[in-house]
Specification:
Layout (H helix, E strand, L loop, with lengths): L7 H21 L6 E4 L2 E8 L13 H22 L6 H24 L2 E9 L2 E2 L5 H29 L2
Antiparallel strand pairs: 1-2, 2-3, 3-4
Helix pairs in contact: 1-3, 2-3, 3-4
């Protein structure tokens, strides 16, 4: 096992936090009944049969399997990428582990329930942003990390070329 695979502990942590928080939300919240936590933040139990921002949510159910296949493919592909990293590529490794954990957390919901449990809901006055969960947060943070690493790599590459 190469060193970067040690980052899979972060994926396991994301899955545990995600599934635990979804179970808690499901047991303590009434479906679609917001519980105000802050003036801009509610806990609201929702079921998303689509993808991000409820994409394809109104279709007949086939999207459940499409999104499951995409999540499985992404988790496998990102794990292969993780195995090819050098031990010092920590931001990339952590970012990949976050995305893998988020994909697996939402995959579990899709396979077990046919929908993803969302419960974190931000709003500004009467404008509500799409509800999300811990898995979505991990995927977003992982994507941001990968973008930052790509920008950092691009900057150092340009600096390296300008010195030669």
């Amino acid at each position: 096992m190469t060193r970067p695979l040690r980052w899979l502990w972060l994926s396991v942590l994301v899955v545990a936090l995600d599934l635990g928080s979804k179970a808690l939300a499901t047991s303590m919240l009434v479906y679609a009944q917001p519980v105000e936590v802050l003036p801009i933040f509610n806990l609201t139990l929702l079921h998303n049969t689509g993808a991000a921002f409820s994409f394809l949510a109104t279709h007949g159910g086939w999207q459940r399997w499409l999104f499951a296949l995409i999540a499985i493919g992404a988790a496998i592909g990102l794990t292969v990428w993780l195995t090819r990293l050098k031990a010092y590529e920590t931001l990339t490794a952590a970012s990949l582990a976050l995305v893998i954990g988020g994909a697996l957390g939402n995959l579990y919901d899709r396979l077990m329930h046919g929908y993803v449990v969302d419960f974190l809901s931000f709003h500004w006055q009467n404008t509500y942003f799409p509800a999300f969960n811990i898995a979505d947060t991990a995927i977003t943070l992982g994507a941001i990390g990968l973008i930052l690493q790509a920008l950092r790599d691009g900057r150092s590459e340009r600096r390296h070329k300008s010195h030669h």
